[in-house]
Amino acid sequence: MxxxxxxxxxxxxxxxxxxxxxxxxxxxxMDLKDITLDxxxxxxxxxxxxxxxxxxxxxxxxxxxxxxFLTWNRKxxxxxxxxxEEAGDNFLKFNRIIIEVDLPKLKNAGNYFLNxxxxxxxxxxxxxxxxxxxxxxxxFRLSEVDLPKLTSIGDSAFKCCNKIxxxxxxxxxxxxxxxxxxxSVIEEISLPKLELMPNYFMEDATVDLKKINLPMxxxxxxxxxxxxxxxxxxxxxxxxxxxxSDCSGVSQFPYWFRD
Length: 259
What we know:
Blueprint: E1 2-6, E2 9-15, E3 20-21, E4 34-37, E5 42-43, E6 56-58, E7 64-65, E8 78-80, E9 86-87, E10 100-102, E11 108-109, E12 122-124, E13 130-131, E14 144-146, E15 152-153, E16 166-168, E17 188-190, E18 211-213, E19 219-222, E20 227-231, E21 256-258
Parallel strand pairs: 2-4, 3-5, 4-6, 5-7, 7-9, 8-10, 9-11, 11-13, 12-14, 13-15, 16-17, 17-18
Antiparallel strand pairs: 1-2, 19-20, 20-21
């Protein structure tokens, strides 16, 4: 392992032999600026937790990262991990300047994975399947979402993502509360495999919403507007309380009719 020092503190680490990094690695090092671990495959919890100086990390073979990875880092603009398959809670949680995400093999992520990425405008995760709570909530500039294999997502997934106009998640079967709450510009939503709609699913998506494709959904009760939307299906699954509250602009429901 090659370690560079400046003023008696570690500023750079390079290694091509370590395959696993344990919990709390350099947890409170505030001066570390570069890390290259060419053969590491697993990183534990609280990796360089409080560092706000790190400019780049290079982990070409890492497959699993634990919780609180670089939680307080606010310098990195690109998150690129070519072989990462699983990430824990609070991955780069307080980094607000990420502009690019390159995670082609990522399958699962914990809570607060990419929330509050204020500069991120698009996301493409070709292998992504399961996300925790607040996945991309408060990504105010996010406008393009491509998650072709996503099947399950936690609370507040796209809450306050107020630039998304079209959202298609072809494999999504499970969503949680506040899915698109606060998005006032959404125009079209296609969730062809979603069956159960939770509470406050699209609360306050009021202005531009025109078309929703939910062919597998069994029943939606819009309690605030006292309207019922039914599908031609044999079974019945109820939507959550106020799932479509204040969605007054809706005009088209393929496979559906209103009473």
